[in-house]
Write a structure and sequence with these properties.
This protein is mainly α. It has a domain of 161 residues. Helix 3 packs antiparallel against helix 5, helix 5 runs antiparallel to helix 6 and helix 5 crosses helix 9. The longest helix is centred in the middle third of the chain and has 43 residues. The chain is elongated and about 80 Å long. The relative contact order is 0.13. About 6% of the residues have low confidence.
């Protein structure tokens, strides 16, 4: 009976051919060399830089929009008393033009704001999922990791501040639109050039509500309104894991479930 192991240990031809890669058993292929993967923290810092690059023209847009010029102050009182601070346009045609201007400004802000919010979501998600106290990099010293983490937290908090300012501007414009519609009620069935039907005003208000609620863009921008606790956390550079995870879930809802 032939030795079943002769081919492996006793056959000279086999021993000579074994080192040849083509002769190795195909059932055990060599694993491919590992691909060069970017360090997760470096990838997050790149996302933060991309946000800042897009935020710079957006910040100029907010300056040019001058939402504060339309801030409503004592508008209800101005309906009965001349307070000097009313945005009363004087006639129906002017009120409609003013309303259209406010709509234009609102839409111009909410569209790029949503793009920034999506970048913020992507960055925050990566930070929460990939960076924790046990994070380690073979390419960086501990002090460098600590510095990069702080840079990432500062960048995320700056994103929140920018988005919070944008949300405040949109709130101002929304309130100005509502005040404009209240003034327009004076012209319902007023007759003459200033005549306005109740149906027209109802449709104007409905379209404004669809836009300013965020439904038109699938984006609840009011999510970024910040309270005193949020302000304190951002001032001191906090980004706690648990609260950040809750924040992420609410952010997902604000962007994906309108």
């Amino acid at each position: 009976m032939p030795n079943p192991y002769e081919q492996l240990f006793g056959n000279e031809d086999f021993q000579q051919r074994a080192p040849d890669d083509e002769a190795l058993p195909s059932a055990f292929p060599m694993p491919p060399p590992p691909e060069n993967q970017q360090d997760p923290l470096d990838a997050i810092l790149e996302k933060i830089a991309a946000f800042q690059q897009n935020a710079e023209p957006f910040s100029v847009l907010m300056s040019q929009t001058r939402a504060v010029d339309h801030e409503v102050s004592g508008e209800w009182l101005a309906l009965f008393v001349n307070t000097g601070g009313s945005h009363n346009q004087g006639n129906l045609s002017a009120e409609k033009d003013y309303h259209a201007l406010l709509i234009h400004k609102f839409r111009n802000l909410i569209e790029p704001m949503k793009e920034l919010a999506l970048l913020h979501l992507e960055t925050l998600k990566a930070f929460i999922l990939e960076i924790d106290d046990a994070y380690y990099s073979i390419e960086k010293a501990d002090v460098e990791i600590k510095t990069d983490k702080e840079r990432a937290v500062d960048g995320l908090n700056l994103q929140r501040k920018i988005l919070a300012e944008a949300a405040r501007n949109l709130d101002i414009l929304d309130q100005a639109l509502e005040a404009c519609e209240r003034r327009m009620k004076r012209y319902i069935n007023a007759g003459g050039a200033n005549n306005l039907s109740a149906a027209e005003l109802a449709l104007i208000a409905k379209n404004r509500s669809h836009l300013c609620s965020g439904r038109e863009h699938g984006f609840d921008y009011t999510f970024f309104n910040i309270n005193l606790l949020d302000k304190a956390a951002m001032t001191f550079g906090f980004l706690m894991k648990e609260t950040s995870s809750q924040y992420l879930q609410k952010l997902l809802f604000a962007l994906e479930n309108r």
